[in-house]
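Q: What structure does this chain adopt?
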Amino acid sequence: MLVRYVAEWFGQIGYDQVDLVGRQVSALSDLLTILLLYIIVARLYNRRVALLGAAFSALAVLQIQQSHFFTVDTIANLFIFLTIYFFRGDHVISGSCSCQRQTPTLSKSRVK
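A:
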């Protein structure tokens, strides 16, 4: 749906034209995913690890191939990373959890 609206906006609704628009949208979403990956990892660890992770993601053959063939995986990946970025669980994003792990205990009395 997203590619259809973008193609209509640019006036390229032919079959051979929509494929090119889809490739561009897929490549743009892959670039935004790499940027979000950098930001999330920089929050969790540091900028050096974030740069390394973004470089590995940018050089991954599967993402490049999926952007070239206009599959929906890169666009779905963008929305997954947006969900992680806007997730409000600060203990997960910041990497520090203040909650204690509790083990379940069995009570001595049983309900009959």
